[in-house]
Amino acid sequence: MKSKLPASAPDVSLYFQVHQPNRLIPYDFFRIGEHAFYEDDLLNAEILSKVSEKCYLPANAMFERLLKKHKGGFRIAMSISGTVIEQMKAHRPDVLKSFQSLVATGHVELLAETYYHSLAYLHSKKEFERQVEMHLDLMEEVFQVRPRVFRNTELIYNNAIAAQAETMGFDGILAEGVNWALNGKSPNFLYRAPEVTQLKTILRNPGLSDDVGFRFSDKNWSEWPLTPEKFAEWIAESDGDVVNLFMDYESIGEHQWEDTGIFEFWEKLPQAVINEDIRWVTPGEVVDLYRASKEYDCHWPTSWADAERDLSAWMGNVMQQEAIGKIHRLEDEVLAAKDDDLTRVWAKLQTSDHFYWMSTKGGTDGGVHQYFSPYESSYDAYIYFMNTLADLQVRLKRIREKESQSTKTKELKPEAVKKAGS
User: How far apart are CA 226 and CA 219, in angstroms?
Assistant: First the structure.
């Protein structure tokens, strides 16, 4: 280990995304108007249980042990979607309890997001705000905390989203560190969007994050095998104020299987980092510790998905564009119906995964899309979604017709009373 002053090394912030979508049944054309239950509940429960046994339960137990062992010297952050919490409540309350126990250590910071893991901001600020408030309320209900840092779905970010997050009272927002917006600068500093006054933008370090999240088990990688000590040295040698490691929680045990040594890596990493005189900090602490001295002018939406780091993972082809446009065009009609169940169904259909599964990309990115999809093809994902949406529209039409009939009945009543009295 190299000798250095503590101040020479940047801090490190570790954040995990925890999310599971609601998958649809193979909803064919002949069910439209006849079958109003859309979700494959058995498949949702099966996948949740598989991921829970491989990742959530063992990772939660490991991190709870490490957090208690280091007594605040090691800290992490998480964002947990509303859809995965709903699934845990319904199918695996023991897993939800393990997350509650983890948060109860006092060393886990929870972040805010859209309840349904949606792309709502791109289509409706009203729906975006509704879902964020729902998620904040859920965090208070389940974990007794109210987050102060925001993480948009899949790190989707631009200047306008940052400005909206500041308007909603957040102190910080997470984003991908993309090269064209950084323009040669390092992601290891805090930044500020052009139109905000207080909100600080915390950028993911793509290289170091992907070294653990994606490349860890790749035996063709020049740095394989990656040890905790080697990785800690890389962090210590980095420039800037803080190295932000952001990744899917499922990268532990699910995407990187147990036999790759991923659990042993995380078991030893906290101490290896501390041995390099590096502090573990959470996004909220980063906001408090560091000044946003640089501008991050991100005028086009970015994300952490695929090689392009843009919106093409969800909106890159005509099927995706049609599906996402159609679901959001129903907003006024759905909310006007004032039917809580129908509103929930509509909102869950906004979950970004539905559109992700419709991607027709090839290459490595295409393989990742197919890996996560529960369907045979992107076309199946599109057809099942659009048929589901068609049935939802039938339900909306029936509500309108019922209201129209009720209005006509009310209008006829005075005339009927008049004739009876004549």
Answer: 10
pTM score, two decimals?
Answer: 0.92
289 vs 410: which has the higher pLDDT? 289
pLDDT at 417: 47
Examine the residue annotation and report whether 154 is marked as an active-site residue of this protein.
Answer: yes
Reading the block at residue 183, the tokens are 């323009």
Q: What is the 3-state secondary structure (H, E, C) of the chain?
A: CCCCCHHHCCEEEEEEEECCCCCECCCCHHHCCCCCCCECHHHHHHHHHHHHHHHHHHHHHHHHHHHHHHCCCCCEEEEECHHHHHHHHHHCHHHHHHHHHHHCCCCEEECECCCCCECHHHCCHHHHHHHHHHHHHHHHHHHCCCCCEECCHHHCECHHHHHHHHHCCCCEEEEECCHHHHCCCCCCCEEECCCCCCCEEEEECHHHHHHHHCCCCCCCCCCCCCCHHHHHHHHHCCCCCEEEEEEEHHHCECCCEHHHCHHHHHHHHHHHHHHCCCCEECHHHHHHHCCCCEECCCCCCECCCCCCCCCHHHHCCHHHHHHHHHHHHCHHHHHHHCCHHHHHHHHHCCECHHHHCCCCCCHHHHHHHHHHCCCCCHHHHHHHHHHHHHHHHHHHHHHHHHHHHHHHHHHHHHHHHHHHHC
Give long-range contacts, CB 8 A cutoff, 24+ apart: 222-225.
225/261
What mean pLDDT do residues 57-64 have?
98
- Residues 20/44, Cβ–Cβ less than 8 Å: yes
Tokens of 218: 């790749």
What is the rounded distance in angstroms from the CA atom of residue 248 to the CA atom of residue 11?
Answer: 21
64, 154, 176, 250: the active-site residue = 154
Report pLDDT digits (tens) over 141-197. 999 999 999 999 999 999 999 999 999 999 999 999 999 999 999 999 999 999 999
Do residues 12 and 280 touch, judged by C-beta distance below 8 A?
yes
Q: Confidence class of residue 275 from pLDDT cuts 50, 70 and 90?
A: very high
d(C-alpha 7, C-alpha 5), whole Å: 5
Query: Which residue(s) pair with 203 in the sheet?
Result: 175
Give me the torsion for CA of 234, 238, 244, 245, rounded to 10°. -20
Q: pLDDT tens-digit profile of 213-227?
A: 999 999 999 999 999
